[in-house]
Amino acid sequence: MKAALIGAGEESLHTIQKAQELGVYVTALDGNPEAEGLKAADEGLTIDISDEKAVLDALQDRKPDFLITGPIGRYLTTAGAVNDALGLAGISRQAAEYCTDKYLFHKKLQEKNLRNCRCLLIPQKQPRRKQGTMPEISVPSNTPQSSSQDTAQEAGASSS
C-alpha cells in the first residue's frame, strides 16, 4: 500500500512511523526542505502544499492508495483536491473549502437553516466600520473577492 502525506512537519513523525509499521510506503510533501517528515518518509518531496496543481502533478504518477494528513489547516483544500482528482476516499475539495473558510461555512449553515445570525464579508480595501453594540469577530477569509466589490456581502439573517 502507498500513502501520500500532505504536510510533513515534526508533528507528522508519529503518523509516518505508524503507517510504516503497517507496511505502508509513505510519500511526504512539504514546502520546507528541512521538514522532519520528509526525512522520515520513504520518499520526501519538497513541494509548496498550497499549490494544488504542483501537489497533483507530483502524486499523479505515484498513485497513492490513500492520503494521510497532519495538521495542515487551510491547506486541507489541497488534500480534497487530490482526493477528487485521484478518486481517493476522504474529504472533497468542496467540503474542505467549507471547513477552512469561515464565511463559506456560515453561508452553508444559513442555507440549511442551521444558523440564524448575521455574517459580513468585508473586502480588504474597505475600511472597517466602527464597533457597534453587537459583538464582532474579525477573521481573515480565504474567500476570493472580486476587485470590483465595493460593499460588504452579507450572509445570514438580517438583524431585527
Q: Any overview of this molecule?
A:
The protein has 160 residues and is α/β, with parallel strands linked by helices. The strands form 2 sheets. It has a 4-stranded parallel sheet, sandwiched between helices. A two-stranded antiparallel sheet has the order 5-6. Helix content is 32%, strand content 17%. The longest helix has 11 residues, at 76-86.
Q: Label the structural class.
A: alpha/beta
Strand proportion, as a percent range, falls in: 15-25%
| Strand order within the widest beta sheet | 3-2-1-4
**Topology as a string of helices (H) and strands (E):** EHEHEHEHHHEE
**What does the main sheet amount to?**
4 strands, parallel
Distance between the termini: 56 Å
Shape: elongated
Number of helices, counting only DSSP H or I runs of 4 residues or more: 6
Helix percentage range: 25-40%
What is the C-alpha radius of gyration, as a whole number of Å? 19 Å
Mean pLDDT across all residues, rounded? 82
